[in-house]
Amino acid sequence: MKTRILGAVVGISALLSGLLVAEPAHASGSYTGLPYVAGSGTMYTDWYDEGVVSVAVHRSSNATCLWQAILWSYGHLAKSEIDGIFGDRTDAATRAFQRAHGISPDGSAGRQSWTAAGGISHTVDTSGWTNGLFSGWEHSFNVRRSTAGNYQFNIGDGWQWASYNSRTCS
């Protein structure tokens, strides 16, 4: 009897430890794992495989700053709230964005939210950058993609790399 109980405890412990060390889900399994919001091809449909930004994942990053700029462009955040920190106001604004776009409002910007954002018109200039204009319902801002596929954005205070691993916007 003790052997069966001990075996059950060991089995349950192994199962739980596996659950606790599992990596978080990234945008329905589609996240590329790159350190930047990145892509190729047409900019209009480029943000379908980006990583999650939320209160728990990439909370303090330039990718969050880009997401906040998107929320601002749709009228869900004030420009002064674009700081690269995914806090309560960004969570509430993300839920409002999700409801407005027919997405289940969980407050986490993953695959469906990034895809719904869409809407970048673009041209290619002679330096090799793909330049675009992101337009929401209320505001627009400039984006560009390097030849390596990494995005930058400019909401009026200079170009910022859309990095998941650093935060320089404020």
Describe the secondary structure blueprint for this structure.
Elements: H1 2-21, H2 62-73, H3 88-100, H4 111-117, E1 120-124, E2 130-135, E3 140-145, E4 151-154, E5 160-161
Antiparallel strand pairs: 1-2, 2-3, 3-4, 4-5
Structural class: alpha+beta
Describe the strand arrangement of the main beta sheet, using strand numbers.
1-2-3-4-5
Number of helices: 4
What general form does the structure show? globular
Q: Helical amount among residues, as a percent range?
A: 25-40%
- Uncertain residue ranges: 1-30
- N to C succession of SSEs: HHHHEEEEE
The percentage of residues in β strands lies in 5-15%
| Span of the ends, CA to CA | 61 Å
Mind explaining what this structure looks like?
With 170 residues, the protein is α+β, with helices and mostly antiparallel strands. It has a single domain (29-161), classed as PGBD-like superfamily/PGBD (Muramoyl-pentapeptide Carboxypeptidase, domain 1, Orthogonal Bundle). 31% of the residues lie in helices and 14% in strands. The chain has four helices and five strands. The chain has helices spanning 2-21, 62-73, 88-100, 111-117, and strands at 120-124, 130-135, 140-145, 151-154, 160-161. Strands 1-2-3-4-5 form a five-stranded antiparallel beta sheet, covered by helices on one side. The radius of gyration is 19 Å and the shape is globular. Residues 1-30 have low confidence and may be disordered.
